[in-house]
Write a structure and sequence with these properties.
- By secondary structure, the protein is an alpha/beta fold.
- The strands form 2 sheets. Strands 6-7-8-3-9-10 form a 6-stranded mixed sheet, sandwiched between helices.
- The chain is built from 9 helices and 10 strands.
- The longest helix has 15 residues.
- The structure holds adenosine-5'-diphosphate (ADP) (2 copies).
- One adenosine-5'-diphosphate (ADP) binds next to loops.
- Belongs to the ABC transporter superfamily. ABCB family. Heavy Metal importer (TC 3.A.1.210) subfamily.
- This is ATP-binding cassette sub-family B member 6.
């Protein structure tokens, strides 16, 4: 599951400004789509509409054939994991942040402790350990560590669909590799929409949508877009 369709979707934040001008695309279940384009082109708006932060001004969005306007908000959000650019952490342990960190998950979905620990060990593996309080570490959590924590708590929720806004900050090569491993673990087998800033993500995407001024102006794999450039 996790087949996503945007059908002629427009969106206006206000009547004078059209943020999306009738966009259509289809993502097969399990595929990764990279959204690229200049700041202000509409990439974040696409993710917000799929999460029903807003509904389209016109047009429709479907998940597995069902119009998301007809889904319960919390059942929709249980099926979608969001990794924002700036992760907000609870002032609690790393364990707590992994198990309860997804503020959109209802508490019926609270995660299995053993699973959370296993995810921690495979993709986090912080030297100070699982029960370290984030607050005590405070600002010693680097951007890369915060990102991995955000990824871990998304994996634990096990959603079929992932929305990811990649961090723009430059990372050293070791951190880069750790993040890439975590991203691979998270996106494998899941439908992923990613606002892509990293070349490796763009190159691995099944399809790239180039967004400009509220429209999709090009579609294709990395190789196809280069060939047509
Ligand atoms: P990004 O390029 O990552 O989307 P922006 O600087 O465009 O970052 O937006 C940062 C935040 O400000 C977003 O959460 C967005 O909702 C909000 N924002 C962007 N443009 C406007 C605007 N014209 N009016 C109000 N809020 C805006
Ligand atoms: P991107 O993610 O590609 O940077 P956005 O989807 O954030 O672009 O923004 C698309 C357009 O919508 C921009 O013109 C932006 O200023 C506007 N916008 C974004 N968020 C808001 C908001 N909360 N209120 C009003 N306008 C917004």
């Amino acid at each position: 599951s996790g087949h996503v369709v945007f059908d002629n979707v427009t969106f206006n934040y206000d009547p004078r400004q059209t943020a999306l001008k009738g966009i259509s695309f289809s993502i097969p279940a399990g595929a990764t789509v990279a959204l690229v384009g200049p700041s202000g082109s509409g990439k974040s708006t696409i993710l917000r509409l799929l999460f029903r932060f807003y509904d389209p001004t016109s047009g429709n969005i479907y998940i597995d054939g069902q119009n998301i306007r007809e889904l319960q908000q919390n059942s929709l959000r249980r099926n979608i994991g969001v990794v924002p650019q700036d992760t907000v952490l609870f002032n609690d342990t790393i364990e707590y942040n992994i198990r309860y960190g997804d503020v959109d998950a209802s508490h019926e979905t609270v995660v299995n402790a053993a699973k959370a620990a296993q995810i921690h060990d495979s993709i986090m593996n912080f030297p100070d350990g699982y029960e370290t309080r984030v607050g005590e570490r405070g600002l010693r959590l680097s951007g890369g560590e915060k990102q991995r924590l955000a990824i871990a708590r998304t994996i634990v929720k096990n959603p079929p669909i992932i929305l990811l806004d990649e961090a723009t900050s430059a990372l050293d090569t070791t951190t880069e590799r750790h993040i890439q491993d975590a991203l691979n673990a998270m996106t494998k087998g899941r439908t992923t929409l990613v606002i892509a800033h990293r070349l490796s993500t763009i190159m691995k995407a099944d399809v790239i949508l180039v967004v400009r001024d509220g429209e999709i102006v090009e579609t294709g794999t990395h190789d196809e877009l280069i060939r047509n450039a």
